User: Fold this.
Amino acid sequence: LEEGGEEEEEKKDMMMLAIAGEEEEEVKRFATARRSPETSAMPPPVAAVAVEAIMMKKVTVHSVPFGMTARRLLVINVWGEAAQQGVSVGDRILKINNQSLSSHRDMEKIFVESVPPFSILLLGATEKSILKAKKLMANLRLKQMQNGNLISVRPKRQFSVPVNKGKLNKIVNLGFDEELSHEALYVSRGKTQKALKWLFGKPQRLCICEWDIRYDTRSKKVYYANNTSKQTQWHRPIVPESMQRIYNKMVRDTEDVDARLLSEALIHYKADVTKAMRWLRLKSPKPLPLNFIMQVLRGELIYIDKTTRKRYTKRPVDPMFC
Assistant:
C-alpha cells in the first residue's frame, strides 16, 4: 500500500512539472511576441457601443390630409392626426397596405389609386435619420423660398371679411384649427360660445380649391360659393376636404347620378366607394325634397327639415340605407 502511495505521489509530481513546463513555454512565446516588431501592435480593447433601440410603428390613415410630409420615404414633417398617432420626424416608411416600397413613386401611386383608410408601417427614427430628415426639410424650405412661396404645412384660406382677432386667437389657443375657428365666428356671428359649440360638432375643413367661404355683412350670414359650378348656397357643404378627391372622381365616373345623392352616400358610408355605389345602383334613390338639408355632426349625417326645424338621424325618405 505504501509503495502504491509513493507511485501515485510520483505521478502527481511529474504532472505538475509537465504543467509548469507548458506554462513556462507559454510565457516565453508571449514575451517573444511582445518583442517582435510585427506583432507589437496589439489590438485595441473593444469599446462598449450604445445600441439604439429601433421600433416599428403601424398607423392608419383615416382621412387625407393625414398630417405627414415625406421625401425619399423619410418623414420630414408631422402635424395633426399623424402626430397624434405617434409618427415623428425621421421615421422611414416601409409598407403601405402591406405593399413594400422601393421608391417615393411607389408611395404616390398607392395614394392616387387607392382610397382611405391606409395602413402604414414605419421604422422608428434614429439620430442619423432625424438629421437627414431635417436636412431634406431645410432644402425643401429653401426651394420654396427660391420659387417665391414659403412652405406651408396647411394651405391658408383667405377670408374676405375679417373677424375679431382676440376672439380668433382665444379659440385657436384652445387647440382648434385656425380656418375652422374663422368659419365658426362667421357662423356664430362673432359669438365665442356659439362658435365653440359649432366646433365641438367636429366639422372638417372644406376643400380650398372647390369651396369659397364668404360672409354677407348685411344679413350677417355665412354662405358658400362653389368655384367649379359658380353657384352659391347658404347651408354648409357636407363633403370635407379629405373626401373631395374621391367625390370628384365619382362625379366624373357617374354622370347619370345626382351629385347630392353621391355626396349623401359617400358621407354615410364613410368614403367607402364600393358600398356607396352599390346603394346607388341597387336602390335607385331620388334626391331629397328641397325642404331638407344635410349636415355632418361629429362625423354622422344629420337631416334637417327647414320648415319644421326637426332633425333626423336616419334618412327621412325611402329608400333607406342598407
About this structure: The first strand starts at residue 56 and ends at 61.
